Amino acid sequence: MQDTMLKLSNAALHDLPDGVSGPNYDRSAIKPGIVHIGLGNFHRAHQAWYLHRLMQQGQALDWGIIGAGVRAGDEAQRQRLAGQDYLTTLIELDPKGRSAEVVGSMIGFVPVEGDNAGLIAQMAAPEIRIVALTVTEGGYYIDPVTKQFDARHPDMQYDAAHPDRPRTAFGAMIAALKDRRAIGTGPFTGQSCDNLQGNGAILRQTLVSLARMSDPDLADWIDANCTFPNSMVDCIVPATGPKELELVKRFGIADAAPVTHENFRQWVIEDNFCAGRPDWDKAGATFTDEVHAFEAMKIRLLNGSHQLIANAGEVLSVEFISDCMDHPLIGDFVRKVAKTEIALQVAPVPGMTPAAYVDLVDRRFSNPEIIDTVRRVAFDGSSRHPGFILPTLRAALAKGDPMDGLALSQAIWARMCAGTREDGTKIAPNDPVWEKLTIAAVAAKNNPQIWLEQRDFYGDLADNTALQDSFRHWLSLIWSDGLEAALRTYLQG
């Protein structure tokens, strides 16, 4: 570790430590063009990085990012980033060696307010042409089974009743679009960057459906004029904690919000932008009309496998994803399910077969430099299992394909949600509906069907006798003989 830490700021960019690259462009010349809501680690390591790379080529200086958030906790992030001129140190964790660069494509952050007035005004500004979001898979107010808009949710009821002072990002976007229509600024593109299949279509559904609850004419205008490109985003980005804060110091930089990431990125985007866009393809992104196939491969094989790993790791007290891949049972379990069950339900994409993608994911998850916790990956299973695993399970059942490992994954999720590990330690709540899940998981110990009867997740899958039988077998075996015995039985089958 270096003795003197360089506090990250615009003034410090000319004095970055040896080996740390930074912006070669004049940040004072950047003009805003994008508002990004939900400015966490993933956005800064992914979308902001692509834009930074374009700016390094002397392009896209009129597409600067203004960060935003709608949760009270987002204000702390705003203050951290404002204190360092909205710069971020990205640390690439390559097994061949670590490297660092400072990214400067973000130029501001809207103060977080209860009525979102500042955010609405910023999105209504004529120079803003894209409003992007990373608000997690469960943040779009959709029913996990039907995938339809949940108009009964209290947040949606509130925003519909108070459209001029909404509490959600979607209500704020609608209010801004209302202002833009009134003053003739025109529409903006709504760009979801979350791990949802058809994320652009889902964003359109949420925005138009919410607008229709209070202003049908505005809803029609949004539907007819705004665009919502589907996209697939991919990069493993761990949460920032003490280890990451210590790691950035080894590069000689004092950064209050550094980001670590793997040495892999992918961004596949539908080219459907009503008010222009940066040329992200010149920085490595892919524009295509076949986003759906890329989404399906990534969501089912990578995100789905992530849940298999994390739930098993939590139950067996394995803290990190790479250690789970080294575990002789967890790693082999994930590999077998991915190759012999999930891959059967995934179509190839240009340049990549499902089998090759399984191998790519295996290498990425096994990267020992990525200190990614099972707790982070397992968070919000009530959104991630219905989004990442259950569609594959449904497809396998419909075709009569192998699905025992997928059923086992649901039994492992149920065992994890009971709230204890096999070593007796407690699993802290890790889901927005953790209490509900725990009640069902404990009851399912004696009656496994109770878990499947959570129809807000499983829908009519709860009635499938093949799933019932397999799930009952695995959950009973886990409770009687332990998860390792269940994994061993599956691997030997």
From TrEMBL:
<dbReference type="InterPro" id="IPR050988">
    <property type="entry name" value="Mannitol_DH/Oxidoreductase"/>
</dbReference>
<dbReference type="InterPro" id="IPR013118">
    <property type="entry name" value="Mannitol_DH_C"/>
</dbReference>
<dbReference type="InterPro" id="IPR013328">
    <property type="entry name" value="6PGD_dom2"/>
</dbReference>
<dbReference type="Pfam" id="PF01232">
    <property type="entry name" value="Mannitol_dh"/>
</dbReference>
<feature type="domain" description="Mannitol dehydrogenase C-terminal">
    <location>
        <begin position="291"/>
        <end position="475"/>
    </location>
</feature>
<keyword id="KW-0560">Oxidoreductase</keyword>
<dbReference type="InterPro" id="IPR000669">
    <property type="entry name" value="Mannitol_DH"/>
</dbReference>
<dbReference type="InterPro" id="IPR013131">
    <property type="entry name" value="Mannitol_DH_N"/>
</dbReference>
<dbReference type="GO" id="GO:0050086">
    <property type="term" value="F:mannitol 2-dehydrogenase activity"/>
</dbReference>
<dbReference type="InterPro" id="IPR036291">
    <property type="entry name" value="NAD(P)-bd_dom_sf"/>
</dbReference>
<protein>
    <submittedName>
        <fullName>Mannitol 2-dehydrogenase</fullName>
        <ecNumber>1.1.1.67</ecNumber>
    </submittedName>
</protein>
<dbReference type="Pfam" id="PF08125">
    <property type="entry name" value="Mannitol_dh_C"/>
</dbReference>
<dbReference type="InterPro" id="IPR008927">
    <property type="entry name" value="6-PGluconate_DH-like_C_sf"/>
</dbReference>
<feature type="domain" description="Mannitol dehydrogenase N-terminal">
    <location>
        <begin position="33"/>
        <end position="282"/>
    </location>
</feature>
